[in-house]
Write a sequence for this structure.
C-alpha cells in the first residue's frame, strides 16, 4: 500500500502569491526560522485543503507562510521565514 503525500509543491501556491505580490514568486526564496534551511518557495510543501494556503519547510515541516482570504481581507503571515528574497527581475 502506498501513501499519497498530503501536500503539493510550492508551485501550487503560485497563483495566490502572484495575486498578492504582483510578481511570479516561485523563484523567490527564504530561510526557515525553524531549521535555517534556505529554500525556494517552489520547493516548499504546499497545503491547499484548509481555509487558506500553507507553505511548510521541506526540511523540518515548520510553517513558513500562511495566506487566508476572507470576504473583506487577505491575511498573510510569513513569520516562519527569517526573510523573503525576490529576484529583481520578478518585481
Ligand atoms: Zn525548516
Amino acid at each position: 500500500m502506498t501513501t499519497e503525500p498530503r501536500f503539493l509543491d510550492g508551485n501550487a501556491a503560485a497563483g495566490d502569491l502572484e495575486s498578492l505580490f504582483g510578481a511570479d514568486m516561485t523563484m523567490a526564496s527564504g530561510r526557515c526560522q525553524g531549521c535555517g534551511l534556505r529554500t525556494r518557495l517552489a520547493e516548499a510543501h504546499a497545503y491547499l485543503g484548509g481555509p487558506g494556503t500553507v507553505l511548510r519547510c521541506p526540511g523540518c515541516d515548520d510553517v513558513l507562510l500562511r495566506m487566508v482570504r476572507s470576504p473583506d481581507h487577505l491575511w498573510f503571515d510569513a513569520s516562519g521565514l527569517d526573510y523573503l528574497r525576490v529576484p529583481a527581475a520578478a518585481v
Summary: The beta strands are 8-9, 29-32, 38-40, 45-47, 52-56, 63-69, 74-77, 81-85.
